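Review session, final week

We close the course with one last complete record, chosen because it touches almost every idea we covered. It is ABC transporter, a protein from Lysinibacillus piscis with 259 residues. Go through it on your own first, then we will talk.
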Amino acid sequence: MITIQNVIYTIGEHRILQDMNFTVQEGHFVGIIGPNGCGKSTMLKLLYRYFQLQQGTIVLHEQDLMQVPQKIFAKQVAVVSQDSPVLFDFSVKEMVYMGRTPHKKWLESDTASDEEIVLTCMQRTNIAHLAERSFGQLSGGEKKRVLLARALAQQAQILILDEPTNHLDIEHQFQLMDLVADLPITIIAALHDLNLAASYCDELIVMQKGEIYAMGRSEDVLTQQMLMDVFHIQADISRNPFTNKPHLLFYSNAQIKTP
Ligand SMILES: Nc1ncnc2c1ncn2[C@@H]1O[C@H](COP(=O)(O)OP(=O)(O)OP(=O)(O)O)[C@@H](O)[C@H]1O
């Protein structure tokens, strides 16, 4: 379980997060939604310790997240972030092997088990055919799938995803969501596609201006009022007949033609 209590985060004069409080249960898939600039990535960056906590506490399995030793943290938390800079030009396979690093001792060489994990993760993310390609030369969507494979190879109990479907074509969006939703681990993802969020997440956290506007099951959270208040968009909300999950049809007044 991860507990976020009274977390406030400020950059310069700008208060980015205001008193964030929520709990993520083990094994749940939690989606964070909200408009551009509302603080989703900042919240995730605190969770994966890219940012230092300034105020409040984050507790992971009854331990202060900031006190967890780096090597243990890397075994527990894997991340696919928006901007994962790669300074040197590695092959795809080398990139995925990096996911095994937290499990190894200094200079310990890769084992047959590492090889099997890496190959399986490449197959599951549909990148096995890219194994020898240079990471730097891949398309945005291919890179995203390599970063996911690397995160899977880490075999962490918590997976943090910052806009994981960004750059992916429609087939790979569903493939990625199917894949991660099927993992028996905790997942926290910032998502822009509200229909994907509604389809896959156990719970949604709606953020607005650095605060939580609402949280709960997608059925309860995705209301016309919320969509107007937070996203300033009109929507018809129905059920997807195939999945029985909420389905949003968006429109603007300008699109509605009067006869
Ligand atoms: N390093 C920084 N310096 C100054 N302001 C920053 C910095 N990083 C983020 N911000 C500001 O913090 C706010 C929240 O940013 P954040 O990236 O968390 O939003 P987001 O909800 O993830 O947005 P998006 O949906 O556009 O990715 C924004 O107003 C952003 O401009």
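Two points worth writing down before the exam:
The chain is about 30% helix and 30% strand.
The pocket of adenosine-5'-triphosphate is lined by residues 11, 14, 16, 34, 36-42, 190 (CB under 6 Å).
Good luck, everyone.
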